Amino acid sequence: MDKIRIHGGHPLSGSIKISGSKNSSLPILAATLLTREQCVVHEVPDLSDTHYMLQILMHLGAQVERASGTVSVTAEKTQSVAPYDIVRKMRASVCVLGPLLGRCKEATVSLPGGCVIGDRPIDLHLKGFEALGAAVRVESGNIKIFAPKLTGTVINMQGRLGPTVLGTDNVMMAAVLADGLTVIEGAAQEPEVVDLANFLNKMGAKIEGAGTRRIIIEGVRALHGAEHQVIPDRIEAGTFLVAGAISGEGVTVKRVNPEHVRSVTDALAACGFPIDTADNAISVWPNGDARALEIKTDPYPGFPTDMQAQMCALLSTSHGTSVVMENIFPQRYMHVAELKRMGAQMRLEGATAVIDGVDRLLGAPVMASDLRASAALVLAGLKAEGITEVSRVYHIDRGYERLDEKLSELGAHIERVKEV
Ligand code: EPZ
Question: Tens digits of per-residue pLDDT, 139-152?
Answer without folding.
Answer: 888 999 999 999 99
